[in-house]
Amino acid sequence: MEIGVNMGYFGLGLDDDQLVLAQEADRLGYSVAWVAEAYGSDAPTVLSWIGAQTERIGLGAAVMQIPARTPAMTAMTAATLDTLSGGRFRLGLGVSGPQVSEGWHGVRFAAPLGRTREYVDIVRQVLRRERLSYAGKHFTLPLPDGPGKSLKLTVRPVREHIPVYLAAVGPKNLELAGEIADGWLGIFFSPEHSTDDLAHIVAGRRRAGRGTDADPLAGFDVSTAVPVAITDDVQEAATAVAPYVALYVGGMGSREQNFYNDLAVRLGFAQAAAEVQDLYLAGRPRDAAAALPFELIDAITLLGPRDRVKDRLSRYPAAGVTTLNVSPFASDREGRLAIIRTMAELMDELGL
Length: 352
Description:
Number of helices: 14
Number of domains: 2
Largest sheet: 8 strands, parallel, barrel
CATH topology of the largest domain: TIM Barrel
Helix content: 40-55%
Shape: globular
Structural class: alpha/beta
């Protein structure tokens, strides 16, 4: 199992701290630094900034939003970042949710699975430097009955294949990730509760004839973000992480469509998920965080003293995780750096 660092969003006043974290992770041999986007900072700009000031660490988009860009634009950006970084880019894609897709980008949140499949097809066609011609249900290139030409990417990426990851939560999307992607960007992964997630990915891999008969996940990166808070006080750690979990379970989407709330239900916390959502949508985020059961937070995080975190960390490889991405939770830069360093030490001690 490799280790990465999840950098989250930028532009919130901690950008210099985040750069220092990425540089320290680079020095320690972390495999990848992931950067997010929603409706604030964009991932490619930040990755370019980090890539210019690091040497070896992979540069991952987690994610570039599918409704935000045409597939050809995404392929151009991927080729450029991969070239500038000397082959370090990883392209994570996601459809976002209906609120962001329709409210921010003006793109209908319809047929997300079909659009994702065609989008990835086109991105890969462009990166193979084929003349772009595509006749799908959701994308048609060139546009018919117009002056458009079938064009080919003018630059040559430094790698023949740039890895594509899908951020997937629901069962059908997980199957799609296994079928068409090189990796999965997971969230709220629990070694004890996420067997079904991997089963859906395996189903997609088998359907596409990927991997091997004995190991359908061979060559596939199960890459999941895990909040980490290392402290002697386990309850204090859970309290620090709770607002982050509550935001996703309660506020990322509407009452009718919140994929993370659905995930909490599948993890076995249906009653808590409903209560947290009710409180969050009522404008009471602190109460929503306080309503989260410790058991839910503990299942999807690494919390507490060093030895407790080490014990929990040892369970991830057996659960199928191939890249564990640390989201450090601490009150200041030094605290977050300490988590990055401690996690590297624990990986060495466990022989991972």
